[in-house]
Amino acid sequence: MQVITTTEELHTFSAALRDKPFVAVDTEFMREKTYWPILCLIQAAAEGEEAIIDPLAEGIDLTPFLEVLTDDKVVKVFHAARQDLEIFYKLLGEVPGPLFDTQIAAMACGFGDQIGYEPLMRTLLKAKIDKGSRFTDWSRRPLTDSQLAYALSDVTHLRDAYPILKDSLEGRRRKHWVEEEMHALNDDDLYHVQPAKAWKRLKLRGVRPKEMGVVVKLAEWREHEAQTKDIPRSRILKDESIYELARLQPKDAKSLARARSIPSGFERSKSGAAIIDVIGAGITLPKAETPKIDKPDREKVSADVLELLKVLLKRQCETFHVAPKLIATTADLEEIARSDDADVPALSGWRREIFGDAALRLKRGEIALKLKGDSVDIIDV
User: Fold this and answer.
1) Which of 66-80, 110-124, 295-309, 322-336 has the lowest mean pLDDT?
2) What stretch of H or E contains 171?
3) Alpha-carbon distance 132 to 103, whole Å?
């Protein structure tokens, strides 16, 4: 097992990877006590090459490997890539590419919604994965042989699974399905929350218009503080506190102390004073600068139409062997129930071919659903 701890070793390994058509990549990280994930290990495997890179090794420069991640001749293979990509986005300032996410590919091949790494590897490779090292502290050194073996197996299995999924997609003519999803992973907002947009992470059901400015400003302040201090958002201010403060809108330390979610004495702290100022800025935020939350009128959704669309979705996904979540969410189905021109992915591209056109025809009464034995069938009306 090769464990890379020097820049020279990494340069040699990375040069070998750049001659390969693809490389499987995984990471081990810690973020329980920080805002930004702490990168503890990088695992990489290609045809005839495999190694663990120790980013915590003294003096190591990750540049040679980061250059592999941006080499457009080498496909980067991940499983459920989002968190790994966040780490590399912070190091690179861009999203690695080209990408192939085996979880998304598996959904397109009919392996179910958001299938986990272990069940997918068991299905494709009959692999037995020792989960004993999963929840260890990856920042502590030295790492044990069992930890290293567990970490490396993540990418060696991934390396073996990639050709199987790739061939399956090509055989089903679904390669472009996954490519479309990979393009969506290039959105910068997935990996870096701009403080001014932090309010979008909150659940705004029940927030009144006059509270929205305070919610926006508190979320912005919290995000900036968390990023600057590199601590979790909840250590700065919990979501429930934002909602409560937006409702109470305290204007001084005494009224801030009355908030149930604020610890005793917090109102006298520097952060307490800052929160009072932020609330004041939120109260005076011009209405034109306050985000408008478009809440759909759910009363207009026909329950019967929605249920029929759910049955049709299940039927189409079983027929075409594709995971339902890759086609449409319940919210998407509600939008389709409301309007034939709904702006949802299910009514465009390959999703429309699989489901969208049939959904609109069902709404118009041009097709019907009937039982055929134990399954649902479509008939023309």
Assistant:
1) 295-309
2) helix 145-171
3) 22
Q: How many whole angstroms separate alpha carbon 231 and alpha carbon 68?
A: 30
Predicted confidence (pLDDT) per residue in 285-322, tens digit:
998 888 887 655 555 788 999 999 999 999 999 999 99
Task: Give the whole-angstrom CA distance, residue 327 versus residue 346.
Answer: 6
Instruction: Output the six-digit token pair for 373.
Output: 């034995």
Judged by phi (left if over 0) then psi (alpha if -120 to 50, else beta), residue 272 lies in alpha
The single-letter code of the amino acid at 186 is N
CA distance 378 to 362: 9
How far is it, in rounded angstroms, from Cα 349 to Cα 335?
A: 17
Residue found under tokens 């801030």:
256
- Model confidence pLDDT, tens digit, residues 15-29: 999 999 999 999 999
Q: What is the pLDDT of residues 42-73, one digit of tens each?
A: 999 999 999 999 999 999 999 999 999 999 99
Helix (H) or strand (E) holding 380: strand 375-380
CATH of domain 195-289: 1.10.150.80
The structure's pTM equals 0.87
Domain 298-380 fold: DNA polymerase; domain 1 (1.10.150)
Residue 107 pLDDT: 96
| β-pair type (367-372, 375-380) | antiparallel
Which DSSP category does 75 fall into?
E
Dihedral class, residue 114 (left if φ above 0, else alpha if ψ from -120 to 50, else beta):
left
Sheet containing 3-4, strands listed edge to edge, beginning at the edge strand earlier in sequence: 3-4, 49-53, 38-46, 22-30, 75-78, 99-101
Residue 151 to residue 26: CA distance in whole angstroms: 8
3-190 CATH choice from 3.30.420.10, 3.60.10.10, 3.40.980.10, 3.40.47.10: 3.30.420.10
Helix axis angle for 239-248 and 209-229, nearest 10°, is 140
Give the closest residue to 158 by CA, choosing from 216, 95, 76.
Answer: 76
Gap between the Cα atoms of 84 and 69, Å rounded: 12
Instruction: For residue 78, give both structure tokens.
Output: 């991940």
CB 356 within 8 A of CB 346: yes
